[in-house]
Design a protein that fits this description.
The complex is a heterotrimer of chains A (292), B (367) and C (294).
Chain A (H helix, E strand, L loop, with lengths): L11 H22 L16 H7 L4 H35 L4 H9 L6 H12 L4 H8 L16 H26 L3 H8 L4 H29 L3 H6 L7 H10 L4 H22 L5 H7 L4
Helix pairs in contact in A: 1-12, 3-7, 3-9, 7-9, 8-9, 9-12, 11-12
Chain B lengths: L1 H10 L23 E5 L19 H7 L4 E5 L3 H10 L5 E2 L6 H6 L3 E2 L14 H6 L1 E2 L2 E2 L1 E14 L23 E2 L4 H12 L9 H14 L10 H11 L4 E5 H9 L4 E3 L6 E11 L5 H12 L1 H11 L2 E2 L12 H7 L12 E3 L6 H13 L1
Parallel strand pairs in B: 1-2, 1-3, 8-9, 11-13
Antiparallel strand pairs in B: 3-11, 4-11, 5-6, 7-9, 7-10, 7-11, 7-12
Chain C lengths: L5 H29 L16 H7 L2 H33 L3 H12 L6 H15 L5 H26 L2 H9 L4 H30 L2 H6 L7 H9 L5 H36 L3 H9 L5 H7 L1
Helix pairs in contact in C: 1-11, 2-11, 3-6, 3-8, 3-10, 6-8, 6-13, 7-8, 8-11
Classes of the chains: A mainly alpha (292), B alpha/beta (367), C mainly alpha (294).
C-alpha cells in the first residue's frame, strides 16, 4: 500500500484518549503520593517524601511484608499455572490434530464467562458448608459439621482460584508457539536417532520457551495487582497488595499513602513488562509495518 | 464530641454544602423519589427485599411510596461509612453512629433536618436529641443506641477468664476470637484494655502502644468480621468462634436460638454508642427523606425494633413495660437512654486522631 | 515416528479432558444450584425450583444493575471499536520508532493494574469536581478495552489485500468512501470480535466500576459483589449468574460460528478459489489466537 503521509496522524485521537484517561490519572496518583495534593479537608499540601520513605524504609513494614507475600503468591501461581498449561497446549498442538481449534475454544470458553461469577462459584464450592465439605460429610469421610479449615479463606483458596482463572489464558501463547514450530525439526531429530523424550526435552521445549515465558508473563502481570479474589475467598492473612491499595481508597481519608502503594505497584508491573516485554506481541509491530 | 464542636466553630461554615433553600425546593410530588441510603445491614425498611429480620420500621414509608425507589449501600463500620459518604456519595440519607458527626458536617455532606416535618420528633428523648445537634441545628435524628462488648460462648469460655476486655487477648482461645473490622472501635478496646483514661483522645505514645497491643492480638483472631448476620452470628452459633465483638442484638438472637452465650460486662466498662439518621446535603428528595425518617422513629417502629434487637430507642413514648424481656431491659437499662453516657460505660465519640488511627489500622490489617 | 507415543497421547488426552472438567465444574455448580430449591447452596440437593429466577427478575435493583451494565458495555464497546479502527488505520501508516512508541502507549492499559487505574480515575473525578458517575465508568472501560480492540482489528487490517482499497481510490472514491464501502465491510469479522470482546470485558469489570459507579446505581458486578456476601440474596445471584454463564458460552459459540461464516463469505469475495478450499477445510484460529500471535 502506498504510504500516505498524513494518515499516521490518525493515531492521535486514540492516543490523546489514553493519555487523558490513563496518563493523567497516574500523574495525579503520583502527585498525591508526594503530598502535592490531598483529599483530607484542611490538611497542609506540600511536597513531601515522608510517605515514600515510610513505605520503603520506615514504619510501613506491614505493607512491605504484604507486598512480598503478594509477589510470592503471584510468582508461585504463575509458575504452577505455566507448568500445568504446557501439557494442555502440547495436547492441542500435537495430539488433537483435526479438532485443534474447536478444542482450544472449549478450553478458552470458561475464560469468557464472568470472572466474578467464577470466583463466587468457587466460594460456594469451598466454603465451610459448601459442595466439597457437604460431600465429605455425606460420604462420611469427615464428621458432620466439621469443615476442612484450609479449604477456604486461605492461601490455598486464593491460589487455587487464581490458577483456575488463568490457566486457559496461559495455554494460548504456548499453543501458538508450538503450532508455529516447524514439525520437521522433530522429524529431523527422530531421523538422527533421538528418542521421543530426548526430542521433547532437547528440541521442542527449548524452541517453545518464548511461548512459555509469554504465558508466564500473561499470568504474572495481572496477578500482582489482583484484589478481587482475596476479597471473596481470602482470609484476613491472605489479602494481597492490591487489597491494601483498595482499603486506603475506600476505608480511610488518607489517599496520599494509598497513592504511594499504587505507584509502587505500577512501577513493579512496568519493570516486569520491560524485562519480559520482548516476549510479548513483537509480531504485531513487525506485521504493522507496511511494505512487507 | 466537645472537641469536634470546637473544631467546627474554628472551621467556619461547611464548604461543599449547596443545599437548596426552602423557596427553591420542589414539593413532594415533584421529587424523583429514589432514595439512596447508607445503612447498616439489618435496618432496611419493612417491605424491601433486603429486610429479612422482620423489622417493622419504614413500613409507613414503603406502604405509601413503595419499595422500588430505595437503594441501600451498606455500612461495615463507621470509619468506612464516612469515607464512603465522602467518595461514593451523594446519599439521600445516612445512618451511621454519632462519633463522626462533626466530620460529616465539616465536609459538607449533610444538612440539618426540618424537625417540623417529622411529627414523632417531639416524642424523642431530649438527651439523645441534643446529641444530634451541632450549633443548635438538628443534623442527626437519633434512633438506636446500645452497647458494644464481647459476646462469648459460656460453654467454651471459662467464667474466670471473662472478666474484662483482656479476654480478647487470651492465648487460650487463639483462633476462636473474632473482633470487628472497625478501626476506631478496636483502638478504643485496646485503650480500655491498657487502661488509658481517654479512649477517644490518645496521645501519640498511647496510640503506638495500642497499635502494638492490636498487633499482638491479631494472630488470635479468626477474622475481623464485617457483617454480623453472615459472619459473626453463624460463627458463634456453629462454634467456629467463641468470642466475638458485638452489640447486644447478637446476645438476644443467639439466646433465642438456645445458644449459650453471654454479653461480657468488662471490669473496664462496655462501649456504648448512639446512631441516627443524617440528611444528605444535596438531596433531591428533601420531603421523601423526612417521611422516611418519620417512618422509623414513630412509636410502633421503635417499640418493635427494641423488641427485636434489644437496642435502646430514642422515642421516649416506648416504655420499658412495652418490651417483652424484662430481665434484659433491666440488664441493659433499656428504659434509660442517658445510661450510654454513664460513668461505667464509654460512649464512642469523636476522635481527633482518626486519620492516624485508620492508617495504623490498615497497617495492622496488612501485617 | 510420531512425536507423541500412544501412551503419551492417551495420557495427554486424559489430562486435557480432566482439565476441561475442572474448568467447567464451577460453572456447572452454579447451573445446578440455580434450580435448587434450598436457599443455601449446599449438598444434598433439595429439589428443583425456578423460584430464584422469578425472584431475581422481580428484584428491581438486580435488573437495574443488569440493564446499566449492558448499556455501559454497549457504549464502551462502540467507542472503543471506533477508536480501535482509527488507531489501527493510523498505526498502519507509521513505522520504526514512531510506530513503537504509539503502539506502546496505546497498549499501556493492558499493563497497568486495574486497581491503580481505578483509584487514579477516582482521583481524577474528585479533582474535576464531578464525582463518581456512570459516564466516568464508561470512559474508564473504554480505556481498558481499547487495546483489545486494536489487537483484534490491526491484524485483520494488515491482512487485507491493499489492492482493493487502491482500486477504489483509482476509480475516484474519496478516502473516506473507500474506508466506508471497502475496508470496513472487509473488517467486519474483526469488528464483531472487537465488539464482543470489549462488551464482555466491560460487562464483567469490577475494579473501576466499584469506585466510579454512583452509590445508588451499581453496575452488575458491583451489585453481584455486594450480594454475594448476603445469604438472603445469594440464590437470586446464582440464578442470574447461571443465565449469564449460559449466555456467555452461547455467545462464544455464536461468535465463533459467525466469524467462520463471515470468513467464508469474504474469502469468496476475494476471488481466491484456492484459499477458499483450503481455508474452508481447516479449523480457523479464533480471534484470540490471532491476538496472541500478532
Amino acid at each position: 500500500m502506498r504510504r500516505r503521509p498524513g494518515k499516521g496522524a490518525l493515531v492521535l485521537p486514540p492516543l490523546l484518549f489514553v493519555v487523558a484517561l490513563l496518563g493523567v490519572p497516574v500523574v495525579f496518583i503520583a502527585l498525591f503520593s508526594v503530598g502535592l495534593r490531598s483529599n483530607i479537608p484542611g490538611a497542609p499540601v506540600a511536597f513531601s517524601l515522608s510517605n515514600w520513605s515510610d513505605f520503603l524504609t520506615g514504619g510501613g513494614g506491614a505493607f512491605r511484608g504484604r507486598f512480598v507475600y503478594s509477589m510470592e503468591v503471584a510468582v508461585g501461581v504463575s509458575v504452577v499455572t505455566t507448568i500445568a498449561a504446557y501439557p494442555l497446549a502440547y495436547f492441542l498442538s500435537f495430539v488433537a490434530r483435526r479438532r485443534t481449534y474447536a478444542l482450544l475454544l472449549l478450553l478458552l470458553a470458561p475464560f469468557f464467562t464472568s470472572y466474578l461469577l467464577r470466583v463466587i462459584a468457587w466460594q460456594i464450592i469451598l466454603n465451610s458448608s459448601g459442595v466439597v465439605n457437604s460431600l465429605l460429610w455425606g460420604m462420611h469421610l469427615r464428621p458432620q459439621g466439621d469443615p476442612v479449615s484450609w479449604l477456604i479463606y486461605s492461601t490455598f483458596s486464593v491460589s487455587l482460584v487464581l490458577f483456575y482463572t488463568w490457566i486457559p489464558f496461559v495455554s494460548l501463547p504456548i499453543f501458538v508457539v508450538l503450532e508455529n514450530m516447524d514439525h520437521a525439526l522433530q522429524e529431523a531429530a527422530a531421523d538422527l536417532g533421538a528418542s521421543r523424550m530426548a526430542t521433547f526435552w532437547k528440541v521442542t521445549v527449548p524452541l517453545s520457551l518464548p511461548g512459555v515465558i509469554a504465558g508466564f508473563v500473561f499470568v504474572l502481570i495481572p496477578t500482582t495487582g489482583e484484589f478481587i479474589t482475596p476479597l471473596l475467598v481470602g482470609g484476613p492473612n491472605n489479602q494481597l497488595f492490591g487489597n491494601s491499595i483498595q482499603a486506603f481508597f475506600s476505608a480511610t481519608p488518607d489517599w496520599n499513602y494509598g497513592s504511594v502503594l499504587a505507584i509502587a505497584l505500577i512501577v513493579v508491573v512496568v519493570v516486569l513488562t520491560l524485562l519480559f516485554g520482548r516476549f510479548l506481541q513483537t509480531d504485531l509491530r513487525a506485521e504493522a509495518e507496511p511494505g512487507r | 464530641m466537645l472537641g469536634g464542636a470546637v473544631l467546627l466553630d474554628a472551621c467556619g461554615s461547611p464548604s461543599k454544602s449547596t443545599s437548596t433553600s426552602p423557596s427553591k425546593r420542589p414539593p413532594l410530588a415533584k421529587e424523583p423519589g429514589n432514595l439512596s441510603i447508607l445503612e447498616w445491614p439489618g435496618y432496611e425498611a419493612h417491605g424491601t427485599k433486603a429486610q429479612t429480620n422482620g423489622l417493622l420500621a419504614g413500613k409507613a414509608y414503603t406502604s405509601r411510596f413503595g419499595t422500588s425507589g430505595i437503594t441501600y449501600t451498606y455500612i461495615t463500620n463507621d470509619d468506612q461509612a464516612l469515607e464512603k459518604a465522602t467518595a461514593a456519595g451523594p446519599f439521600d440519607l445516612m445512618h451511621p453512629c454519632h462519633e463522626n458527626l462533626p466530620d460529616y458536617v465539616t465536609r459538607g455532606l449533610v444538612q440539618p433536618f426540618d424537625t417540623s416535618l417529622i411529627p414523632s420528633f417531639s416524642q424523642l428523648n431530649p438527651f439523645l436529641a441534643k446529641k444530634g445537634q451541632i450549633n443548635g441545628k438538628q443534623y442527626m435524628i437519633p434512633w438506636d443506641w446500645g452497647y458494644g462488648s464481647l459476646t462469648y460462648r459460656t460453654d467454651h469460655v471459662a467464667a474466670s477468664d471473662a472478666t474484662g476486655w483482656q479476654l480478647a487477648w487470651n492465648k487460650k482461645y487463639s483462633g476462636k476470637i473474632s473482633l470487628w473490622g472497625g478501626a476506631s472501635t478496636n483502638f478504643e478496646i485496646a485503650a480500655l484494655k491498657l487502661g488509658f483514661p481517654s479512649m477517644d483522645n490518645l496521645t501519640t505514645s498511647q496510640l503506638t502502644q495500642a497499635k502494638a497491643a492490636l498487633l499482638a492480638q491479631k494472630p488470635l483472631n479468626k477474622l475481623y468480621w464485617d457483617n454480623e448476620y453472615t459472619q459473626l452470628q453463624p460463627d458463634l452459633k456453629s462454634g467456629t468462634t467463641w468470642i466475638g465483638y458485638s452489640w447486644q442484638d447478637t446476645l438476644v438472637t443467639l439466646s433465642g436460638e438456645k445458644i449459650p452465650v453471654a454479653f461480657l460486662n468488662p471490669s473496664q466498662g462496655r462501649l456504648s454508642w448512639l446512631c441516627g439518621f443524617m440528611l444528605g446535603a444535596n438531596t433531591k428528595n428533601y420531603y421523601h427523606c423526612h417521611d422516611y425518617v418519620e417512618s422509623y422513629i414513630n412509636h410502633a417502629a421503635c417499640a418493635q425494633m427494641t423488641n427485636s434487637y434489644y437496642y435502646g430507642t430514642s422515642n421516649a413514648t416506648v416504655k420499658p413495660s412495652d418490651i417483652k424481656n424484662q430481665t434484659l431491659v433491666k440488664a441493659l437499662k433499656l428504659g434509660d437512654p442517658s445510661a450510654i453516657a454513664a460513668s461505667d460505660v464509654h460512649l464512642q465519640s469523636w476522635s481527633p486522631n482518626r486519620p492516624a488511627l485508620e492508617k495504623a489500622w490498615l497497617e495492622i490489617v496488612a501485617a | 515416528m510420531r512425536p507423541v507415543s500412544r501412551i503419551g497421547s492417551a495420557g495427554l488426552a486424559f489430562y486435557f479432558w480432566a482439565f476441561v472438567l475442572f474448568l467447567f465444574a464451577p460453572l456447572v455448580v452454579l447451573l445446578i444450584f440455580s434450580v435448587n430449591s434450598s436457599p443455601t447452596p449446599t449438598l444434598p440437593l433439595s429439589g428443583f425450583s425456578t423460584e430464584w429466577f422469578h425472584q431475581a427478575f422481580s428484584n428491581a435493583e438486580l435488573t437495574g444493575a443488569l440493564v446499566r451494565s449492558v448499556f455501559i458495555a454497549l457504549v464502551a464497546a462502540a467507542i472503543a471499536t471506533a477508536l480501535g479502527i482509527v488507531a489501527s488505520l493510523g498505526l498502519m501508516a507509521l513505522r520504526g520508532r514512531a510506530l513503537s512508541m504509539a503502539l506502546t502507549l496505546l497498549l499501556l492499559p493492558l499493563v497497568v493494574p486495574y486497581i491503580c487505574l481505578a483509584v487514579g480515575l477516582l482521583i481524577l473525578v474528585e479533582v474535576l469536581g464531578s464525582g463518581p458517575s456512570l459516564i466516568a465508568v464508561v470512559l474508564g472501560h473504554c480505556v481498558i478495552v481499547l487495546p483489545f480492540a486494536i489487537l483484534v482489528i490491526m491484524p485483520r487490517l494488515r491482512s487485507l489485500d491493499p489492492a482493493m482499497n487502491e482500486a477504489a481510490l483509482d476509480l475516484g472514491a474519496s478516502s473516506f468512501a473507500a474506508l466506508r464501502l471497502i475496508t470496513l465491510p472487509l473488517l467486519a469479522p474483526a469488528l464483531v470480535s472487537s465488539g464482543i470482546i470489549c462488551f464482555v470485558t466491560s460487562f464483567d469489570e469490577f475494579a473501576i466500576a466499584s469506585f466510579l459507579a454512583p452509590s445508588g446505581q451499581p453496575t452488575y458486578p458491583v451489585f453481584l459483589y455486594a450480594s454475594a456476601r448476603t445469604p438472603a440474596l445469594l440464590p437470586e445471584v446464582i440464578a442470574v449468574g447461571a443465565l449469564i454463564i449460559a449466555g456467555s458460552l452461547l455467545l462464544v459459540m455464536l461468535a465463533e460460528g459467525g466469524r467462520r461464516w463471515a470468513e467464508l463469505r469474504l474469502v469468496g469475495a476475494n476471488a481466491d478459489t484456492e484459499s477458499v478450499q483450503s481455508e474452508a477445510e481447516d479449523d480457523q484460529p479464533p480471534a484470540t489466537v490471532a491476538m496472541a500471535s500478532g
